[in-house]
Amino acid sequence: MGQADVDVSIWLKSKPRFADLFNAIIFGKKQVISPDELEELPPVSSTSLRDKKGKSTNIKCYRDIIMKWQSNAIFVLLASELQDNIHYAMPVKTMLYDVLDYTEQIRSMWKLTKNDLIVAKENRINTSNISGAEFISRFRKNDRLIPIITLTFYYGEKEWDGALSLYDMFKFNGTEIENTILQKYIPDYHINLVDAGKIDNLECFQSDLQVILGMLKYRNNKNALQKYITEHSSYFSCIDTETYQAIRAFLHSEQILKKYTHNNKEVQIDMCKALDDLYNDGITQGIKQGIEEGISRTKHETAHEMYNIGISVETIAAVLKENKLTISQWLS
């Protein structure tokens, strides 16, 4: 995970924001998921596979954010994969994460099943036996998996032109009829893309996601961005470091805006002033660069004029206070 993704992840894994993201994208304006129903889980998706000889191979992938949502009879895992850049194999990447999590669920349930049978045997408690099919499957007939919903949260500036499903990554060379028949037997896998800078129904968001995602619409227009932040100064004039770091990542200005550490949570930052200072410094730097370029251009023209009337390179260099190599390059 790059530093930008880390900053966005720290900001987005706030339970109120995370719940708001899923409520807005999945349920529209309905507030179905409550922050206090969420439990953050370790981001490691892993499992152990055995070959025919019994040798184990461990496979690990690291999710950006994953939380457990449990409300009454509803039990779902909610995950978010953050993308600063377009990932052209995103359907396979997401599918791998989900499959690893499902595989780990099967492994964990089978482990509990075996432990329960051992305890029952030790206490001479009658229990249903494991059938041969269940033993081979490592999964009992009545076992059930916890579903996983993964959102791909893309906050890059370029329009997403990557695959949205596994089918988009396939090359079907047959006729339309042949391809239709094949697709009946080839499972597809869709990603749930959230293009952060192109969300229209911002009113569905109830947290500060609404303000931040609205800001992304203007990130390529300096004046419009400054106007938007000024119009929402009540929010941007006093933000915490986690929000500030996320904004730096969203605006792709990590190399320009000052960095604050996430440990300084008590620090309040005025984003309006930070942008004003940034743009004023840019104007000052532009004027300075323009003057320097003007001086250089004047020297360049003077060197040509002196050379055309027969003055030597050595003399031109001495008069203009430049080395002979520079003068020779100008004259070549």
Can you describe this structure in just a few lines?
This protein is an alpha/beta fold. The chain has helices at 3-12, 15-27, 90-122, 132-137, 166-169, 176-183, 209-216, 222-231, 233-236, 241-250, 271-308, 313-320, 324-331; strands at residues 38-40, 44-50, 56-62, 65-71, 74-83, 148-154, 192-195. The protein has two domains: 3-207, no CATH class; 281-331.
Supply database-style keywords.
single chain; 332 residues; alpha/beta; 2 domains; 5-stranded mixed β-sheet; two-stranded antiparallel sheet; 13 helices; 7 strands
Task: Describe, in plain words, how this protein is organized in 3D.
- The structure is a single chain.
- With 332 residues, this protein is α/β, with parallel strands linked by helices.
- The chain folds into two domains: 3-207, no CATH class; 281-331.
- The chain is built from 13 helices and seven strands.
- A five-stranded mixed beta sheet has the order 1-4-5-6-7, sandwiched between helices. Strands 2-3 form a two-stranded antiparallel sheet.
- Helix 12 packs across helix 13.
- The longest helix has 38 residues, at 271-308.
- The radius of gyration is 30 Å and the shape is elongated.
- The two termini are 49 Å apart.
- The model is unreliable at 282-288 (pLDDT under 50).
